[in-house]
Amino acid sequence: MATLNVLILVCLAYVVLLFGVAFAADRMAAAGRGAWLRSPLIYTLSLSIYCTAWTFYGAVGNAARSGLEFVTIYLGPTLVMVSWWWGLRKLVRVGRSQRVTSIADLISSRYGKSNTLAICVTILAVLGGTPYIALQLQSITLSFSIFAEADPSGLYREGSSVFWVAAGLAVFAILFGTRNLDANERHHGVVTAIALESVVKLFALLAVGAFVVWGVAGGVGPMMDRIDASEIGQWHVDAGRWTTFIFLSAAAFICLPRMFQVMVVENADEGHLRTAAWAFPLYLLLMSLFVVPIAVVGLDLMPEGSNPDLFVLTVPLSQGNDWLAMLSFIGGFSSATSMVIVTAMALSTMVSNHLVMPIWLSTQEGSGSVSGDVRNVVLMARRVSIAVIMALGFFYYRLSGGGAALASIGLVAFAGISQILPALVGGLFWRGATRTGALVGLTVGFLLWIYTLLLPGMGGTLISDSVLQNGPFAWGWLRPQALFGIEGMDPMVHTVMWSLSLNTVAFCVASLLSFPSPLERLQGAQFVNVFDHSVAPRGWTGSVAQSEDLMIMTQRILGAGPAQDFFQAEVEQQGGRSNLPEPTPAFLERLERELSGSVGAATAHAMIGQIVGGSSVSVEDLLAVADESAQMLEYSSQLEVKSAELSRTARQLREANTKLTQISEQKDSFLSQVSHELRTPMTSIRAFSEIMRDTDGLSAEEQTRYAAIIHDEALRLTRLLDDLLDLSVLESGQVSLNVGGDTLRSVLDRAVSSALAGTGQTLTVRRSKASERIPLQTDLDRLGQVFINLISNAQKYCDAEEPELTISAHDVGGQVVIDFADNGSGIPPEARSMVFEKFARVGVDKAGGAGLGLAICREIMQRLGGEITYLPGQGGAAFRVRLPLAYRQAAQ
Amino acid sequence: MSTGEDRPPSGVRPSLFLERQSYRRRRLSDAARLLPFFGAALLAIPLLWPDASGAQEGVPLSSAIFYIFACWAGLILASLVFGFAARRMAKHDDSEPETDRWPR
Amino acid sequence: MSRKVLLIEDEPNIAEAIRFLLTREGWQVQTHGEGADALQVIQGASPDLVILDVMLPGKSGMEILRDLRELEDLQGLPVLMLTARGQSRDREMAENAGVSRFMTKPFSNTEMLTAVRDLHAQATQS
């Protein structure tokens, strides 16, 4: 017979093992190793905290009392898991994308971050959870007492053992449940320890079951016969309870704070649900596989009146199999501890977030801004909450006296926590669900639960028998266990039916009648349409994660380049230790200003507020908004670009049109000038040739004179045609230059003699031939043409008494500059800009020029890479020719 | 009931004709969705069995256990099959329905 | 009585040809080669006929004609206009300005003489 001391020793060793496992898992997770910690298997095993000591021990007891009814508690969760595709998946996605910390947080977040709702859910959860914890404590002490009865030393004292168990569990939960603050930073240590405990309790129950079937009954066949022969050997199930319990367990599976903690908050990967969808039902099946055999064997073997809830322990003990009993004890211990630890964690999060922190923050309001380390305050609040919740469970256990009333507490707690279901499911699938609806529904369901189940269940202490029998104020239709006069129902079915249906009705009606706030509607849309714009978010690590998100958001708004520049500048300003700036207030203010330039001040404020501050709108949604804004910005800038392009095109068209008009006008005017220049000499030629033909008796002088006029005008025509062709070739750029080398002096020599040949030599040309010894490399004939033109112009137009032309040349930095200045009256200033235009003639003198000479000169000089300009301030007309010493192709 | 997986990623127009692959996948997810209702119906059948409290003989508990656990195992098996099929199809096709991609 | 024609033409060779032709017809020919003061010359000379070139230095023949038609006593003066540009637009403008006859250079001598005779005949009839 195992002594109590050995039991305690084993117990302590087991607890130390759990501590070790949790510690190691935390260390591994912190070091980034241990991907298996986030495996679907661990996730599935952690879900099995659903199986508490109540189910570990109580299922057999239940089976011993009412046959297969116990299985409903497992079938409900099975159906929920099987429907994970449209149920749990959405819940998990919402929980993760909204960074939800608890079921209360989820409800509050869905209904516009209403803390009132959160407080309601928290109170409901604590009210339902405390007796449940007490139940676990009871099961541990009961199992202890079984061993203590057999222990001769009699040292066992129930009260102190419960206290130590509660204290130990509190310490464990505090140590591993409040190590870090961030909800999405998962508690690897706790989860791993729980997974281990799940394995232990399953193994223990299977071991006992196998022992019973093959060790006691002698195989499956005899076992089945024995079952059919037993007092529960026939199918006898109340239809109402069967369906109600399946439904109730399904609802509780979703709504229980501890289930929400492991299923949603601790979920590392949405894909794990796919594995858990079949693995967890399998776990439940295995857990319940041997329940009926153990119950039947227990009923056979154990003496009349022994507690069937403890058959799992007492059957092996009675058969002298102490070590199996010890294993079974450890299994039950595991069930109890894992449930208590996770429940305490989940409830403490809710209590600290929704009860303690709002109060603490309101007391801090006087100091202007929240000072000090909020993180420490939150952690302390959670630790104290865990201790308080464990104390509550402990005192509840002591006060209730650990009687049989506790046995039904499991289902009572299920019914209580299930009141959240309408608000939860409505919030996930119905956008029209409002805060008011959720509040009204919860309140109605909660009050009905207390009135019809909790108070009557406590016996005559809180509610008098007369009220139970006749209803309050003798209103029969308000009797707690027969509302509206419907009698004869099972109290549990009665409560669940009325509370949940009226809860749902109240929720729907109040939702339809009320109008949601904008935030509520936004959150509603995000919850209901969570699959439209979200990905499973990564974990968040402190402030650097904030900077990263700010960076991502900023990139989406400003574009990658500017955002990176901005952040880099901030890093340097802050001292540049990391590659992302710390989110200091100054930095955030600058960033907000930067962003408000793109999306407007209000939006920028809200966006930064959401990332840095609360999280009533998730970062993913903000990013989606930012994407849309960026798209719109991009679109509008595209429009701007397009309209700019259009106006540019229009301007170009207008310019082209103006140019065409100008060209057309120039062409008209050029043609008309060419026509004039051609017709004028032809008129003289025709007139005089007709005179000479038709007139008899012309004198010899007359004949000579008229023939000379005809000859001159013919020459003029020829010159004109030559000039026109020359100009046309020059202007079209098709001229081929004949580059040769000579000195400026000899070019000028030839030009002067050519220009003055055959004339009266009236023009005196002054030159300084020494300065003209400049070697030139250019088209010498074309240059000579320019010179001849300039000299003959001086000859023709210089109106001085003794016309003189001074030609001076200079070599100026690789260029030669030649000035031609005469001593005449020059060109009037208003005509100077015109002299190089075609057909421009200054003055009335008709010296036979067509007015193309200077235009041709300008074209030639351009081809030679130089220029010809009018040189003012020289007394008479003066032109300056400038050209490179050596003709270069590039000069063109 | 809003089911996100039928909705295409925003910004992409839903195509009228699905390829055989994605058509199969949708029907598979339909079946997966119907599974819990099917299971609930199966588990409601024992309520129609004759009750032992009456004059007639009730159904032996061993048969009841066999039926319930068979249904249960069947559900688990179906869920397992759907899970693996969904994963295989997800690997087959880039546009995995359950990991909705980032908008655009 | 002697008939007097005023020839306003800046091309000396053309002016000489016309002078030769009309002198032999018995016209007294006065020539002027500048546009700017042409109107004063016309008023001073009070000719029976004016032959006016369009392209004149200083002031175009069109403007001279327009100004001339503004003057009451010169409204009936026959004006023969010559142009070397040969564009139909010029003919329109000249007719609008009140030209008596319009000729494009180069012209034949007979053409010129016929025009002068016709214009003079019309003027003396009216």
Automatic annotation (TrEMBL), chain A:
SMART domains: HATPase_c (SM00387), HisKA (SM00388). It comes from Ruegeria denitrificans. The chain crosses the membrane at residues 6-29, 41-59, 71-88, 116-135, 161-178, 199-220, 240-260, 280-303, 323-347, 380-399, 405-430, 437-458. Residues 673-887 form the Histidine kinase domain. GO terms for cellular component: membrane. GO terms for molecular function: phosphorelay sensor kinase activity; transmembrane transporter activity. It is an enzyme of class 2 (transferase). Residues 636-666 form a coiled coil. Keywords: Coiled coil, Kinase, Membrane, Phosphoprotein, Transferase, Transmembrane, Transmembrane helix, Two-component regulatory system. It catalyses: ATP + protein L-histidine = ADP + protein N-phospho-L-histidine. Belongs to the sodium:solute symporter (SSF) (TC 2.A.21) family. Gene3D superfamilies: 1.10.287.130, Histidine kinase-like ATPase, C-terminal domain, Sodium/glucose cotransporter. This is histidine kinase.
TrEMBL record, chain B:
Keywords: Membrane, Transmembrane, Transmembrane helix. The chain crosses the membrane at residues 31-49, 64-86. This is Uncharacterized protein. The lineage of its organism: Bacteria, Pseudomonadati, Pseudomonadota, Alphaproteobacteria, Rhodobacterales.
TrEMBL record, chain C:
Keywords: DNA-binding, Phosphoprotein, Transcription, Transcription regulation, Two-component regulatory system. One of its GO terms (biological process) is phosphorelay signal transduction system. InterPro entries: Bact_response_regulator, CheY-like_superfamily, Sig_transdc_resp-reg_receiver. It comes from the Bacteria. SUPFAM superfamilies: CheY-like. Residues 4-120 form the Response regulatory domain. One of its GO terms (molecular function) is DNA binding. The modification 4-aspartylphosphate is found at residue 53. This is Transcriptional regulatory protein WalR. It comes from Ruegeria denitrificans. The gene is walR.
